[in-house]
TrEMBL record:
It comes from the Eukaryota. PROSITE patterns: CYTOCHROME_P450. InterPro entries: Cyt_P450, Cyt_P450_CS, Cyt_P450_E_CYP52_ascomycetes, Cyt_P450_E_CYP52_fungi, Cyt_P450_E_grp-II, Cyt_P450_sf. Keywords: Heme, Iron, Membrane, Metal-binding, Monooxygenase, Oxidoreductase, Transmembrane, Transmembrane helix. The keyword Iron applies. The lineage of its organism: Eukaryota, Fungi, Dikarya, Ascomycota, Pezizomycotina. Belongs to the cytochrome P450 family. Heme binds at residue 446. This is Cytochrome P450. The keyword Transport does not apply. It comes from Periconia macrospinosa. The chain crosses the membrane at residues 7-25. It holds the Pfam family p450. GO terms for molecular function: heme binding; iron ion binding; oxidoreductase activity, acting on paired donors, with incorporation or reduction of molecular oxygen, reduced flavin or flavoprotein as one donor, and incorporation of one atom of oxygen.
């Protein structure tokens, strides 16, 4: 018995020594590599809990609850510079808005960084493994599978979009009364996204069935909780929110039924097929596993249905507060030959319209922040040392976090008027590379970028062709952020349109 106990003690001691030797070896190797590469530590704000950084975790939760997540990160950047580090759940987190660092993480040193260890655990219950939460070959496979859905042909399919836009315009009061555009844009984005995914719109703007409404509720709740799980990954295990699990189940049942119907239709030779790209049909060619199909679809649906609605709301929020911008947009639209069909090319050629979209995405990016985790030891080119000129040594497991919101408001990159909404800054002018990233960048750049900009541009032009005037009806002029998975305008966009031309 005693011999047995001794053996256990020896085994534990042996394992601990191996761990210690490995730990020391790694620390020394990293120290040497860091010296050799002239790396230095970035500044770091004082933290009460230097070991786990739970004070910063708590602060982040408070910031989200008080709707000042973006503003709070920006304040830290103002105080500690474009790059600083903090402790967060025991990990070292590098917050950076240095274009050189963003280029490294998102492009030139792409393979050293990933998202899976950060996201998958939070995302899995609702959307499963797919493009949003995986790395490496799994991610490459999803990305390749989805690419055709975003081809020029699909993006240019404006007649399909017109159906949804017309339903939206029909919902705008003609008597000059106030309308909040946020719920309408959300529903339009849902309709467009569902059509692309399932080949059939949920018709949330038209006549949604109670089943579709219930599904939307479930999806919204699931998504909101997913945002919270992202903030508190370590505590997810203890989360016992029955409504979240019930929402996930409803979302899955709904999507599974759609997939089953599409699979049945595909096998039926009497069914007429339209020529549009339908994501569910394409995924069915790859696999007949309903679970795999559901995951791929939900992984696109999540970013697709929210971000465009948010972007459109923010654009109208800004334009309504700057009447001269609406007037300039109208002037540009009136220059289009009467009766001319609006095409992808027409929209691209409208310089001021494109500038308005870029400016709104700069000031109020739909996705305010994103992060990556180091999959191996590497370096960031700048941000170390008191002047921020030295590289930073990155250890496997370190977290990189970028606030697009703070990046886009840097006065040294965008000018002293960086806080102001000025579309004119985009006319014949481009920001430095990697300084403007509303769609992120590199191989993981938003796959829906062109589609989103085209949909937003088309919708704005149709508003301009339908109404003469736009008026802000929100007494609160400042943008009040609301954090879900994206950064929304808490008050939406409360406006009135007058001078209907239809
Ligand atoms: C204005 C609207 C949009 C904005 C501002 C936006 C922004 C972004 C950003 C910043 C990312 C990178 C997130 C990260 O790496 O952490 C992203 C990724 C993504 N977006 Fe968008 N997005 C928009 C619309 C769309 C649309 C319409 C779709 C699909 C129809 C879409 C599909 C995706 C997908 C699938 C990814 C993941 C790409 C990958 O990891 O490879 N997005 N988006």
């Amino acid at each position: 018995m005693c011999f047995h106990r001794n053996n256990v003690v020896y085994c534990i001691a042996f394992a601990l020594s191996i761990y210690l030797v490995r730990f020391l070896y790694k620390t020394i190797t990293r120290y040497r590599a860091s010296k050799r590469l002239n790396c230095k530590e970035p500044p770091s704000p004082p933290q009460k809990d230097r070991l786990l950084g739970l004070d910063f975790v708590y602060q982040q939760i408070v910031d989200i609850q008080k709707d000042r997540r973006n503003a709070s990160i920006r304040e830290l950047h103002e105080k500690y510079g474009p790059t600083f580090s903090s402790k967060f759940y025991g990990s070292r987190k590098i917050h950076t808005v240095e274009p050189q660092n963003l280029q490294a993480v998102m492009s030139t040193d792409f393979k050293s960084w990933g998202v899976e260890p950060l996201r998958l655990f939070s995302f899995d219950p609702l959307i499963g493994r797919g493009i949003m939460g995986t790395d490496g070959r799994r991610w490459e496979h999803s990305r390749a599978l989805l690419r055709p859905a975003f081809s020029r042909k699909e993006i240019s399919d404006l007649p399909s979009l017109e159906v949804h836009v017309q339903k939206l315009l029909d919902k705008i009061p003609r008597d000059g009364s106030t309308v909040n555009l946020r719920p309408l844009f959300t529903r339009m984005a849902l309709d467009a996204a569902s059509e692309m995914l399932f080949g059939e719109s949920l018709d949330m703007l038209g006549n949604p069935t109670p089943e579709n409404e219930a599904w939307l509720q479930a999806m919204n709740y699931g998504q909101m909780t997913l945002g919270k799980r992202m903030q508190l990954p370590q505590w997810n295990f203890f989360t016992r929110d029955a409504k979240f699990w019930a929402s996930c189940k409803s979302v899955h049942q709904f999507v599974d039924a759609k997939i089953e119907a599409i699979a049945r239709a595909e096998k039926d030779p009497t069914q007429q097929r339209d020529k549009h790209y339908v994501l569910a049909r394409e995924v069915l060619k790859e696999t007949s596993d309903p679970l795999a199909i559901r995951k791929e679809l939900l992984n696109v649906f999540l970013p697709a249905h929210e971000a465009t609605g948010v972007a459109l709301t923010n654009i109208f929020f800004n334009v309504a507060r700057h009447p001269h911008v609406w007037n300039k947009l109208r002037a540009e639209t009136l220059q289009l030959p009467p009766g001319q069909k609006i095409t992808y090319e027409t929209l691209k050629s409208m310089e001021y319209l494109q500038a308005v979209i870029s400016e709104s995405l700069r000031l109020n990016p739909s996705i305010g922040t994103t992060s990556r985790i180091a999959l191996s030891d590497t370096t960031l080119p700048v941000g170390g040392g008191s002047q921020g000129e030295a590289p930073i040594y990155i250890r496997k497991g370190d977290i990189f976090s970028v606030s697009f919101y703070s990046l886009h408001r840097r006065k040294d990159l965008f000018g002293e008027d960086a806080e102001q909404f000025k579309p004119e800054r985009w006319v014949n002018n481009h920001p430095p590379r990697w300084a403007y990233l509303p769609f992120s960048g590199g191989p993981r750049v938003c796959i829906g970028q062109q589609m989103a900009v085209t949909q937003a541009a088309y919708t704005i032009v149709r508003f301009l062709q339908t109404f003469k005037d736009l008026e802000n009806r929100d007494p609160v002029l400042e943008f009040q952020e609301q954090f879900t998975l994206s950064t929304q305008s808490r008050n939406g966009a409360k406006v009135a349109f007058t001078g209907a031309l239809d």
